[in-house]
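Project outcomes to date are best conveyed with an example. Our students and postdoctoral researchers have been running inverse folding experiments weekly, and each run begins with a structure described purely in tokens. The record below, which covers 227 residues, was selected by the lab manager from last quarter's runs and is presented without edits.
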């Protein structure tokens, strides 16, 4: 009788242990499922956030200039798809190709995937009539500003002649786009620089040779930021 009682007690104990192990396995499984869901949601919203950064500059902007979005083909010579660390500045450039259009300059960047002649690109190109083409999302680097590629957005600007002076339409779009980007990325006019300020290159020529015009541009951008 005593032995049967012992065996019955032992069996019950084993049954409880098995039940406890089963409950533990269920709890662990639930925790794993929750963690997987959490990680998937985090990855999704992270990707969505990156997409929002890109879309923010690619949609028709109610508070900024309209953009013609023509993203470059992904390639190592003009759009390497390297993540931009953080937008800490806006760099102004000029094409150094008098009379060329925004479309021609955009196509030049894109064709580098085939020609392999150099590495060059810009996030935006502003044309002689003020049209703005976006070539690269604001979440990626462009090959434009040397040591500042990783934390700046580049704006390439067309000009009609060798002086490098911009048309009124180009200038107004420069002010609108630069001001809008500054507002979106919490930048100040002091965060707007010339290619010249990074490397000493004569770019943008007119703003390098005419310091007063450069200072006026930054004042006009500041006024746009405050709107």
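After processing, the design step wrote out the following sequence:
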């Amino acid at each position: 009788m005593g032995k049967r009682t012992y065996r019955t007690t032992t069996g019950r104990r084993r049954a409880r242990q098995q039940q406890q192990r089963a409950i533990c396995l269920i709890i662990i499984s639930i925790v794993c499922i929750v963690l997987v869901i959490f990680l998937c949601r985090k990855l999704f919203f992270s990707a969505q956030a990156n997409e929002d950064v890109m879309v923010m500059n690619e949609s028709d902007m109610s508070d900024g200039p309209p953009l013609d979005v023509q993203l470059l083909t992904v390639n190592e010579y003009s759009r390497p798809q390297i993540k931009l660390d953080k937008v800490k500045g806006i760099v102004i450039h000029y094409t150094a190709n008098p009379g060329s259009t925004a479309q021609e300059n955009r196509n030049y960047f894109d064709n580098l995937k085939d020609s392999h002649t150099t590495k060059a690109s810009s996030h935006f190109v502003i044309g002689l009539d003020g049209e703005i083409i976006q070539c690269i999302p604001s979440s990626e680097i462009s090959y434009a500003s040397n040591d500042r590629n990783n934390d700046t957005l580049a704006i390439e600007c067309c000009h009609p002649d060798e002086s490098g002076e911009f048309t009124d339409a180009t200038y107004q779009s420069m002010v609108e786009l630069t001001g809008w980007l500054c507002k979106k990325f919490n930048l100040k006019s002091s965060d707007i620089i010339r290619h010249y300020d990074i490397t000493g290159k004569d770019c943008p020529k007119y703003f390098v040779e005419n310091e007063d015009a450069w200072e006026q541009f930054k004042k006009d951008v500041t006024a746009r930021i405050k709107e």
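Residues 29 and 171 are 61 Å apart (CA to CA). The chain has two domains: 1-56, 68-226. The training component of this project remains on track.
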